[in-house]
Specification:
Number of domains: 1
Structural class: alpha/beta
CATH class: Alpha Beta
Helix content: 40-55%
Largest sheet: 6 strands, mixed
CATH architecture: 3-Layer(aba) Sandwich
Distance between the termini: 35 Å
CATH superfamily: P-loop containing nucleotide triphosphate hydrolases
Oligomer: single chain
Order of helices and strands: EEEHEEHEHHHHHEHEHEEHH
Strand content: 15-25%
Shape: globular
CATH topology: Rossmann fold
Length: 257
């Protein structure tokens, strides 16, 4: 197992318990879906795995990554892990990029922060290789563009390229297709499948879109109000859900279809 979450509880300062005894394992080289409605604790789970929770929140339980307990790491230790071994893709690529800096400048800043290159030529090679992996072949144009000069789908590919540039072992994708139209959404889903094969990536795919989970994920964890309601292989989850909450979610999907 690349990741083990054991009885994880996160309570914010206002007394809101966002996660309540969450436990599950993540297998190496799998795409695990995290399903839940708004407020179910999906994003809090992501921030817990990235060391980005507010300082005044209470957290208990365990997060074991590659055999090492990481929940109590120091800020410096998190900085080494975050963006390197564990990478993150946000919901809205356009808002996560600086509008007044070129894509290339921002990409180089990421590499510089991680001391990932020794020369400008080496940095350029990493950027070019990352863009080609996400099927952005016009590297020069993308690198010299500002975010507003690229489409939503291209911006999402840019963010994915930035996330995989340092060869992470775990990629956390927090609703990465929520701002895209259905055609581009399908392309991004296929891209995740390709990257999993090419790079032996393990992906935690957080979404409220059951249709995406059905076509992309190997297994799924269903969250409601900060608690795990069900964990199953995706085929079994949709064929024979066990929990009443899961049944209601899948029933609503079938009605939409």
């Amino acid at each position: 197992m690349i990741l083990q979450i054991k009885n994880l509880t996160v309570e914010y300062a206002a007394g809101v318990k966002a996660l309540d005894g969450v436990s599950f394992d993540v297998r190496e080289n799998e795409i695990l879906g995290i399903i839940g409605e708004s407020g179910s604790g999906k994003s809090t789970l992501a921030y817990s795995l990235l060391g980005l929770l507010p300082y005044d929140c209470k957290k208990n339980g365990g997060i074991i990554f590659n055999g090492t307990e990481i929940i109590s790491l120091t800020d410096k230790e998190w900085q080494k892990l975050r963006g390197g071994k564990i990478a993150f893709i946000t919901q809205d690529a356009a808002s996560s990029l600086n509008p007044v800096l070129t894509i290339g400048y921002q990409f180089r800043e990421i590499l510089k922060c991680k001391s990932a290159f020794g020369s400008d030529r080496e940095a350029g090679a990493i950027i070019s290789d990352s863009f080609k992996k996400v099927r952005l072949f016009d590297v020069g144009r993308v690198t010299n563009s500002y975010p507003h000069q690229l489409s939503g789908g291209m911006l999402q590919r840019v963010c994915i390229a930035m996330a995989i540039a340092l060869s992470p072992q775990l990629l956390i994708a927090d609703e990465p297709t929520s701002s895209l139209d259905i055609t581009i959404e399908s392309q991004i889903v296929n891209l995740f499948k390709e990257l999993r094969q090419q790079l032996s990536l393990t992906v935690l795919f957080i979404t409220h879109n059951l249709g995406l989970v059905k076509v992309l994920c190997d297994r799924a964890v269903v969250l409601k109000a900060g608690r795990v309601k069900e964990i199953q292989e995706t085929s079994g989850l949709f064929a024979a859900p066990r929990d009443e909450y899961t049944k209601s979610l899948i029933s609503s999907l079938k009605e939409l279809e």
